[in-house]
Structures are given as structure tokens and as C-alpha cells.
Specification:
alpha+beta, 6 strands, four-stranded antiparallel sheet, Alpha-Beta Plaits, 299 residues
Length: 299
């Protein structure tokens, strides 16, 4: 009697599809590539921030009239290599009096007391557009500014900028190489996950084929399911990525300065497209393979 009252044990159906395992595996793979994508975005933004702070000091001839000073500011502001912030050209006039005050504040020494005069010159401080921050363009900019009437000298920290450009170039190549390798690994991982999941469906595919179903009819439900799983995985990965990003911003407030909403949005949409695309293609290849296999090869 005890055996008769025992509840039936639910057995796993032969050929059942491991939905949770597939979604979990694809989500983790997409999350890894998303984290690396965030690293690339923030590194790119940091590079731009450094380049946006490249500044040239244009020292002027002495005793220039106000009209010429105004004309010089207008000419500098119209240059295509000048950086803009909030639609305003980043051109600032620094008078020799203000320069003297800054020097005294920084050093604590009043050089005018023993020199009897202010030897500094009026200057314009120009911030350079990041697109023109390479060494070749900076030299051309320097030559262009030197040729301007009323300009005495042009200065910028050439060695520092050259070092920054070289380091940024090396870092970009290294990160790009890692991105290519990581993308390849993730694609292979997702492809193998779906192929292993479809391995349990090979007899179902053959059964449908034996009763006369066309290849398109057999493939359609598998392709639809794999694409949907890719979208779900991409959505989960995007949500996890946003949660981790917000946590990082709470812990390190300065990271918000490197946030790029447009590129982050492109990354999240890319995760959705990558999940759906790889799911569709991997499922198509796997089902096509089982459709072409002989019955003996299925065992």
C-alpha cells in the first residue's frame, strides 16, 4: 500500500532542451565582452580628456593696441584646430599682470621688487581640438601661430604630448588586440553552447525529416528559439552591466567624468544584436548539420 500511495517520479523527457543553461551561458559570455567594452569606452574617454587639455601658450609682442588684441582673439577663435566647449572657443587672454600674480601665488616670490618691472608678456591660451593632437598637426599649428602678426613666441610641452600620444597609441593597440581575441572566444563559446544544446534534439530533427517536413519547416522553430534566447541573454547582460556600472560610479565618483552615454548605448544594443545574431547563426549551422547527417552518424 505504501508503494501505491507514493507520488510518481517525474522523469526528464528524452531530448529535452536545456533552456536555462543556454540562457545562463550566453548571458555570462555577453557580460564578459560587455565589461571589456566598458573598459574600452572609459579608456577612450580618458584619452580624449587628456587630449582636450592640450594647451598652447601664444605670447604676444609688447604694447599691442586693444583693437589688435581683439582681432587676434577673433582670428584664433576661428581656427579649425581650436577646441570648443558649450559652443564657445577655448581661447583665453592672459595679461602680463595676471601672469605675474599667478607666478607670485605659486612661488611666493615677488620678482617685480628686485627687477623693478614686469618682464612677462600678454598671452593667449589656446586649447587644441583632440583631432589635431598628434605631433605632426601640433607642429603645423605652432608654425601657423608663429606666422601670425603680433605673435612673439609659441610654447607647449612637446615632449609630454609626444609621450602621451605614444602611450595612447600603444594602449589602443593592446586593447584592440584583446577585444578581437575576446570577441572570437565569446563567439566560439556561444556557438558551442547552442550546438551542445541542439545535440539532444538531433533525433527529433530526424523524426521530423522522416515524416516529410521540409528543411525550412524544421529549422524555423529552432532559429526562432535561439534568436529569442540570444535577445533574452543580451537583455540580462545589459541590465547586469548597467547595475555594475552604477555601483562603480557610486564607489568611484570620478568615473562619471569618463561616462559616454552614446557609446554605452551602442554597446548595450551591440550585446542584444550579438546575442541574437550568434544564436541565430549557430542554431542554423547546427540544425543544418543534423539534417545532412546519416542515421548512423547521429548515434
Amino acid at each position: 500500500m505504501a508503494q501505491l500511495n507514493r507520488p510518481p517520479v517525474r522523469k526528464k523527457k528524452l531530448g529535452s532542451y536545456p533552456h536555462t543553461m543556454v540562457v545562463f551561458s550566453i548571458t555570462l559570455a555577453l557580460l564578459v565582452i560587455g565589461l571589456f567594452g566598458l573598459l574600452l569606452i572609459h579608456a577612450h574617454k580618458l584619452s580624449n580628456v587628456v587630449k582636450e587639455n592640450i594647451e598652447m601658450q601664444v605670447y604676444l609682442e609688447r604694447d599691442l593696441p586693444d583693437a589688435q588684441l581683439l582681432r587676434l582673439q577673433q582670428d584664433f577663435s576661428a581656427k579649425k584646430y581650436i577646441a570648443f566647449k558649450n559652443s564657445q572657443p577655448q581661447v583665453r587672454f592672459l595679461s602680463k599682470e595676471e601672469g605675474a600674480r599667478q607666478f607670485i601665488d605659486q612661488t611666493g616670490e615677488d620678482f617685480k621688487q628686485f627687477l623693478g618691472d614686469n618682464p612677462l608678456r600678454d598671452a593667449y591660451l589656446l586649447k587644441i581640438n583632440p583631432d589635431f593632437s598628434d605631433t605632426t598637426n601640433l607642429r603645423r599649428i605652432e608654425a601657423d601661430l608663429r606666422a601670425t602678426s603680433g605673435v612673439h613666441e609659441v610654447q607647449y610641452v612637446q615632449s609630454l604630448i609626444t609621450s602621451i600620444n605614444q602611450n595612447v597609441r600603444k594602449l589602443s593597440l593592446v586593447l584592440l588586440g584583446f577585444a578581437v581575441i575576446l570577441t572570437f572566444v565569446v563567439v566560439v563559446l556561444i556557438n558551442n553552447t547552442i550546438r551542445l544544446a541542439l545535440f539532444s534534439q538531433r533525433f527529433l530533427i530526424r523524426s521530423m525529416q522522416l515524416v516529410g517536413a521540409t528543411s525550412l519547416f524544421i529549422q524555423r522553430p529552432f532559429l526562432r528559439r535561439a534568436t529569442l534566447q540570444g535577445l533574452v541573454s543580451g537583455t540580462l547582460a545589459a541590465l547586469l552591466l548597467l547595475a555594475l556600472l552604477q555601483y562603480a560610479y557610486l564607489e568611484v565618483e570620478e568615473l562619471r567624468l569618463l561616462r559616454d552615454e552614446r557609446l554605452i548605448g551602442v554597446l548595450l544594443l551591440g550585446l542584444l544584436a550579438l546575442g541574437a545574431g550568434i544564436g541565430f547563426l549557430s542554431s542554423y549551422r547546427a540544425v543544418s548539420k543534423y539534417l545532412r547527417m546519416s542515421l548512423d552518424d547521429l548515434y
